[in-house]
Write a structure and sequence with these properties.
This protein is mostly beta strands. The chain has 2 helices and 10 strands, in the order αβββββαβββββ.
Length: about 190
């Protein structure tokens, strides 16, 4: 899968400069499917820190990018705005992290109904290599930023509650299935 994505990126990178012509602005749209890598989170509480305390796995998602720029001849300046989204497949919880929230009886693998969404922006300066009327390449540098947002939606399949309960929070106190309050937790990637 990684080779397929790399090949598609190379083809797109070679084809994109053909849309740019000397002394003219250009725009473009890229879209495709993506398979994000596993995302590991560190579990941290007042008295415990577990590296890779939660491991999130993704389903196949999608990626849409808009590109706009100006071709000054041999130099191109362009901006890129992108949106990526992938639903979560499941999560693996480290047993030490489960002990940290006083719920060691939960399974280490739980379903995840959440998603990850990402907005990205980038500004690039590119130097064109080769003729402007044929197949060519470019080399350049850029600076950008990304805003990632995750909603895990972890659903323990063997939890005593009949409704989904996010890890790190407990059902309401009035619920007959509420056994204990979970301490607040923080997770970082």
């Amino acid at each position: 899968m990684r080779k397929l994505v790399l090949g598609a990126a190379l083809i797109a990178g070679v084809a994109a400069p053909a849309a740019a012509r000397d002394g003219l602005p250009y725009v473009g749209v890229d879209a495709g499917i993506m398979k994000p890598r596993t995302f590991d989170l560190r579990y941290t509480s007042a008295n415990l820190s577990v590296g890779d305390g939660v491991r999130l796995r993704h389903k196949v998602g999608y990626d849409v990018d808009g590109v706009f720029g100006y071709d000054f001849g041999m130099l191109r300046i362009e901006g890129e705005l992108g949106y990526k989204r992938a639903s979560l497949k499941d999560a693996f919880l480290d047993p030490a992290a489960l002990w940290g929230v006083s719920t060691p009886n939960l399974p280490t693998r739980v379903n995840a109904t959440g998603r990850g969404s990402f907005w990205s922006g980038m500004i690039n300066a590119l130097v064109d290599l080769g003729p402007s009327d044929g197949v060519n390449g470019s080399i350049g540098a850029g600076v950008g930023a990304i805003r990632a947002r995750y909603r895990a939606g972890l659903v323990p399949s063997s939890a005593p509650s009949t409704s989904p309960v996010p890890i790190g929070r407990s059902p309401s106190r009035g619920s007959p299935n509420c056994v204990r309050r979970c301490p607040p937790i923080s997770m970082s990637g």
